[in-house]
Amino acid sequence: MKPGKLLIVDDEKDIRNLMQEIFAEEGYKVTTAANGVQAKQAWRESLPDIMFLDVWMPDVDGISLLKEMQQDAYLEHTKVIMMSGHGTIETAIEATKLGAYDFLEKPLSLAKLIVTAERAMENIRLNQENRQLKQKLPEQFLPIGKSKVMISLRETIERLSKFTMPVLIEGESGSGKHHLARALHKTSSRKDDAIVELSAYDFNRHLEQMQEAAILQQLRQADMGTLVIANIEQLSLDAQNILTNLIQNKQLQLDEQSISLDIRIIALSRGDLEWAVEHNKFREELYQRLKVMPIAIPALRQHTEDIPELLDYFTNHYVTHDALEYRHFSVPAQNILRQYAWPGNLKELQNLVQRILILGSGEITDEEIRSYLKEAQIDTNQMASIDTTVNLKEAKDRLEAAYLSQLLRETSGNVAETAKRSGIDRTNLYRKLKHLGIDPKNPI
């Protein structure tokens, strides 16, 4: 990109003249202003790409002017670089929060001035190219990546687009099951009708609280379209009966009502469905109907070669939809991300990209990624292990099962020692183990 237009706002004439001379020699078109009033007028007349703004001025301070111009939508296409001879970390942070691109301390380094302007112009160029590219691209809803597993997933979606049979999608939490379900809907003959997404927890709750109207409303909305049910293994037996009737007879049976509905069912599972069938918690007949065409989504750690393409996708998404500043992931940064285990899968990668774009500027380095992963590792692992899609009782049971299984492993299956260490009466402990399905001699 050729040098662009600059606006220099500073109450010191010598600094304005010096900066104007330097940047004019570099090929920039330069306008100057001595205070806030002049700055606004100059901005309207020149529409600069970059504005150097002094913090301390006689009529209004630079932070207040920045805030005012942001509120009035002056700076949508202008990068603001703050300058101060009495700069503090707090001032720099406040300016950054208000949208300033950078913060320079006086006395100004001439070399740093030029480099900062060049980086700002490069950032503007990248943002423009990104916006233009996204305007030309259709919405991306198919699985992203060039790995064999992603190519296979796209081929599977293409084959299934011709049919309307139920589909079972299995994969770890955060692996993209909902995204794949939407892709199946959008490539099918039902794409012009609604897709309704419902969790097993909500389905069960509506039935338990006798809210038939709520179920009827959502299923009617999905008529001729697609119904996606998350955590299918957690459906109550009553809900399973309703689903079975929908698949077999295209009928919704509620109380004495029988309503004809044509709905494609896409069931999502974390992979516990076969276990639920074996323990009589899920109907064998329904399971057989769903698994006619099962799709297994791989964990992100199984196709890390797709991470560069996924980084581009998530970056473009946040730049386009959330107006975040475009940043490029360096090759060393990408290599670190390809070596990471990704316990939270695609969702964790998406969260990383969003946070990196919000908190920084310029090219994303390997040092920045290492720092982020080091800080986020503990929280990420904890969050990846907590499933908020289940109700509190189920969450407590899972926590108790994990805790007691670990204690039994540590005590080599000694129930008396486990009872002592857990503070649970031995008789109650046996009841809990039976309820949770834990074999003391073989705790999984």
List the helices and strands and how they pair.
Layout: E1 5-9, H1 13-25, E2 29-33, H2 36-46, E3 50-54, H3 62-71, E4 79-84, H4 89-97, E5 102-105, H5 110-136, H6 148-160, E6 167-170, H7 177-186, E7 195-199, H8 200-208, H9 212-221, E8 226-230, H10 237-249, E9 251-254, E10 257-260, E11 264-269, H11 273-278, H12 284-290, E12 294-296, H13 307-321, H14 331-339, H15 345-359, H16 366-384, H17 392-410, H18 415-422, H19 426-436
Parallel strand pairs: 1-2, 1-3, 3-4, 4-5, 6-11, 6-12, 7-8, 8-11
Antiparallel strand pairs: 9-10
Helix pairs in contact: 13-15, 14-16
Describe the structure.
- With 444 residues, this protein is of the alpha/beta class.
- The protein has 4 domains: 5-136, 3-Layer(aba) Sandwich (Rossmann fold); 148-296, Rossmann fold (3-Layer(aba) Sandwich), CATH 3.40.50; 301-384, Helicase, Ruva Protein, domain 3 (Orthogonal Bundle), CATH 1.10.8; 392-436, Arc Repressor Mutant, subunit A, CATH 1.10.10.
- It has 19 helices and 12 strands.
- The chain has helices spanning 13-25, 36-46, 62-71, 89-97, 110-136, 148-160, 177-186, 200-208, 212-221, 237-249, 273-278, 284-290, 307-321, 331-339, 345-359, 366-384, 392-410, 415-422, 426-436; strands spanning 5-9, 29-33, 50-54, 79-84, 102-105, 167-170, 195-199, 226-230, 251-254, 257-260, 264-269, 294-296.
- It has a 5-stranded parallel sheet, with helices on both faces. It has a 5-stranded parallel sheet with strand order 7-8-11-6-12, sandwiched between helices.
- Strand 9 and strand 10 (257-260) form a beta hairpin.
- Helix 13 crosses helix 15 (345-359) and helix 14 packs parallel to helix 16.
- The chain is elongated and about 85 Å long.
- It starts with a strand and ends in an 8-residue tail after the last helix.
- Pfam families: AAA_lid_14, HTH_8, Response_reg, Sigma54_activat.
- The modification 4-aspartylphosphate is found at residue 54.
- Residues 143-358 form the Sigma-54 factor interaction domain.
- Keywords: ATP-binding, Nucleotide-binding, Phosphoprotein, Transcription, Transcription regulation, Two-component regulatory system.
- It comes from Thiosulfatimonas sediminis.
